[in-house]
Amino acid sequence: MTISASAGDIDRRLLMDRSVSGRKAFTLPESDVPAQNLPDSSFLRDDVELPEVSQLEVIRYFSVLSQLNFSIDTNFYPLGSCTMKYNPKINDELSNLPGLADIHPLQPDETVQGAIRLLKDLQDDLGEITGLPGVSLAPLAGAQGEYAGLLIARAYHNAQNDSARTVAIVPDSAHGTNPASAAMAGLEVVTVRSDDQGNVDVENLRELANENTSVFMLTIPSTLGLFEPNILELTKIIHDVGGLVYADGANLNALLGLVKLGDLGVDICHSNLHKTFSTPHGGGGPGSGPVMVTDELAKFLPKPVAEKIDDGYVLATPEMSVGSINGFHGSFSIAARAYAYIKALGLEGLQSVSENAIISANYIQAKLRDKYDLAADRYCMHETVLSATRQKKRGVAGLDIAKRLLDFGIHAPTMYFPMIVDEALMVEPTESESKETLDHFIAVMRQIDDEIDSAPELVLDAPHDLPVTRLDEATAARKPVLRWTAEL
Amino acid sequence: MASSVNTSVNHPYIPSTDSERAEMLDVIGVDSLDGLLGDIPVEHRHPKLDIDAGLSEQELSTVFGSIAAENASSSSGYISFLGAGSYSHYIPSTVRSILQRGEFVTAYTPYQPEAAQGTLQVGFEFQTIICQLTGMEVANAGMYDGPTAFAEACLMAARVTKRTKIGVLSTADQRLPNTLMAYSKYQGIEIVEVSPDATEIPDDLACIGVQSPNFFGEIEDIERLTNLAHANGALSVVHVNPTALGMFKAPGEFDVDIVTAEGQPLGVPMAFGGPYVGLFACKKAHIRQMPGRIIGRTTDTKGRTGYALTLQTREQHIRRERATSNICTSTQLIGLMVTVYTATLGKQGMKDLASLCYQKAHYAASEINRLDGFSVESLDSDGTFFHEFVVSCPASPSQINASLLDKKIIGGLDISDRSDNGMLVCVTETNSKADIDKFVQALSQIGASA
Question: Which of A18, B63, B156, B304 is in the most buried spot, having the most CB atoms within 10 Å?
């Protein structure tokens, strides 16, 4: 047998296929206590089928796998609505300090004063940034923050003996978690249209808002990367019928220090610490989705809420709390990273984040608008939604363009979202990227547009040089193989 | 109006210089940032914010040093006997080392599988390991944490059986039904308590939710409870401690339908409660009702093996208000820690670890049981407890804990609301015999003066 000399060949065998009986990567200490009686053998299992590999193999296996990924550390990653900004290394380091990583969630408050103080400070900063001073850091992700927000809205109306409000009004451009969270909260989802400018259709909202309206869920800026010019009118329409306004803060990176949501009539919002506040996405979590509310709604917040009392800090349960939406106090070490980020930037730094994020997105939009259609022909906020409709007519879909970008080491934009835009390519450069990187991206996007005519197969068959080409996702779903087995 | 933002801010996290910004604004066709903010009501633009000025990295490290110093932990000389859902275990160097890989840490959800094969293959390994530990057929790629995984499992049982009443064993950690309550409050779900000794259950239950080892550390009769559920057309949902699975029979051996767990004990720092990862496995027959991300194996256009997110039509980004859940994360990075941890300990290590925890907990229980005024009831029940046991104390556990704290000992959890003067004590491999003996001696002294 001849051995291939290509260093590019990757060994994709799974751990169980590498397993050799008797090999180990770790040794536990011997027991230092007298031997105890074991329980009845009917309770005990014979064996656990797990890999047997050496310590080097563990390290090499996972290190090689990591190299198959695109990441912020290694690639430009303009994935719209995901805010793939630089994740400062110091934040990871500080959140793992002894005294933070090794404290137990049920320790008495007096033994974790530093941790609770950190949570209280972060609550205050998030309340200040959003203009909504009641803050709970409990939600473990954006979707949980949303759900917590809806529970608060329902609890508020119930407390007013106004429990017939069972409708959530959601724009057609909303992220899928909005209607999914509303359904979990027992709310009927009614969709409000966008107008031809990409704004919420004010007249349509006026028709839909009534005494059954519990909450209006609005993403600010919208998923089209636009700020609602009629925001004050929208929030007034909802308040006039007794409803509450919930803002999805997924796109808060556009607003730091530029405007406070609370000033605009928003009653409840959440923020994704893993977007705006730079905590790592981790390949799909862990996230953190604090919920912020007006003073009036603070008594309904999920527990716990960090509070300052005379002689220190405590974790408290708000008076009419919607309860526990997870096991403990939220993602503490994610909160610690966000805290470090806010402290490192300070007021001027935070303002500069949004300023630069907005300028970068508009720069890309200005440089590509002759080649790619825009979802809305006006200045955008921190992201621009392009549409590949012109390219589609020439035989190449938005998906193909996204895949071709990968060949250049650039992660694809968010594709086919928002759903109201044909062939959407949502580009969010973030403030972290230099002008050279933006110019390179612009040049590549223009070149891909040229390739559609000069060498369409380069685009249609992309990516070419990644660990895999396009995958058969239909078969994956039809005949699911979801784990290793000996027969695999 | 000129922008009130200080455009000369120069920060390590933001590369653009003043001249580059000016150049970009010129291309865009506006004079200043405010030219781009026309949609924001002018009276609300540039509000006053009470946020401190930024710190250098060195100053930030100092701030964190003082925060960490205000907490009591093993690194400041404390020994602890707290468990109840979060456990102190040794984390091998391999886990910390792989967690330094920015390619894992700073990637997004693998929506572009060609550019995320690393994340996806790890997720497939994670699903495999969870199936192997639990003895189940399929697992998802991870949930937020244990209690939310349990809540989602009960809601899934309600969907599968088309029933709306959920039974939870009275011996479960209250965090499980409490989270379920918050998740199901507006979905027409009723939660009822089931006794572990029940021989009959209502015939309209969607499931019996069992925690084993239960909140008090004792192993439940999963087989009997599962048979009882099935005889009444209900599913069996079992919430386990994954460390115990190195030793005790897997729920899959008892025909359990859905298994959930807190993944934290598998290589994840306690970190004051999070982030953790929820483990979720079930029978293959129910897979289309499963919440969360699922990774599948497939081939590319050249016939090579690859991995991709699959069965996505269950999920919120496609099905919106009809999705199986609103979750859109797999808590992937914590799943990576669990995967590296379990691969590192391996077949023998998981067995040895469970044994070590069992030996030490039983030693501690026996020693405490000898003390005047203290007793450990679990020792009478065939010794089938793991990690944790309830100590019945001669005085209120909170008073005892206050005295222990003076000796730099963080005692067990005060559970006097559930058990008379009860203290839930947890012992793992991180508690040395010397620590245990110090704890026992301190209890003895406090007990004598109580």
Answer: B156
